[in-house]
TrEMBL record:
Residues 1-84 form the GST N-terminal domain. This is Glutathione S-transferase family protein. InterPro entries: Glutathione-S-Trfase_C_sf, Glutathione_S-Trfase_N, GST_UstS-like_C, Thioredoxin-like_sf. PANTHER family: MALEYLACETOACETATE ISOMERASE (PTHR42673:SF4).
Length: 227
């Protein structure tokens, strides 16, 4: 039975953009598993699977229903052990948790300052109203205030990525010679930036850009097809 992955899109369902959903897309391809992706607008998420979750990703695998990208990755690792590993052992799970913390507490904050208005503009009107209200309440600033600082945020992005750049001086992927879920965590963040704003806003010769290009080529270039 083909799995169903519920992900996030704006008015154009062909441009899913959630960083957390991209982690799972890449993980499913890494495992070589068949799945159908069903992108949803923000306000449509509570209407699927009996209101199981207010956020995506949500994965339906037969009778199993799982939310949260890391929990989904752990589920895939346990349910499909014969397929390529996402973690390479328990040490890899622990390392991926560290990468997740760095990504969500540092990288996502930097990207939010760049992409917030672009995300708003991708949405249908109903979702624009929801997005503006929820994000302005969460951030304590208007979207317009965030937009005013966009150039400064782009200039600050390389510094936020220095830990990744440092690691890439020693190996081609976060996972070492080949990618693991830690790569997909950080890739998801930069793919979010790429899909919503059209670029990752780094020089082409930056080691992070070169790593990102390698990730775009993974799994027959499936991530490069969305732009």
């Amino acid at each position: 039975m083909t799995m169903t992955l519920y992900s996030l899109c704006g008015a154009d369902a062909a441009r899913p953009f959630s960083p957390h959903c991209w982690k799972v897309v890449m993980a499913l391809h890494h495992k070589g598993l068949d799945f159908e992706e069903r992108p949803l607008a923000f306000t449509a998420i509570p209407t699927v699977e009996g209101g199981f979750s207010k956020t995506v990703p949500i994965l339906r695998d037969g009778q199993e229903l799982i939310s949260d990208s890391f929990r989904i990755a752990l589920y895939l690792e346990e349910a499909y052990p014969e397929q390529p590993s996402l973690f390479g052992g328990q040490g890899g799970v622990a390392a991926a948790r560290l990468v997740e913390g760095y990504s969500q507490h540092v990288v996502h904050g930097a990207i939010t300052k760049i992409a917030l208005v672009d995300i708003h503009d991708m949405l249908a009107p109903t979702d624009q109203a929801y997005f503006r209200k929820s994000r302005e309440e969460r951030l304590g600033r208007t979207l317009e205030d965030m937009a005013a600082g966009r150039d400064a945020a782009i200039a600050a992005l390389p510094a936020a990525l220095q830990p990744l750049r440092h690691m890439l001086a020693f190996q081609p992927f976060v996972g070492g010679a080949t990618p693991l879920f830690g790569d997909y965590i950080l890739f998801g963040a930069l793919q979010w930036l790429r899909v919503t704003t059209g670029a990752i806003h780094l020089p082409a010769d930056d080691p992070v850009s070169l790593w990102f290009d390698r990730c775009l080529e993974l799994h027959d270039g499936v991530a490069r097809e969305v732009a």
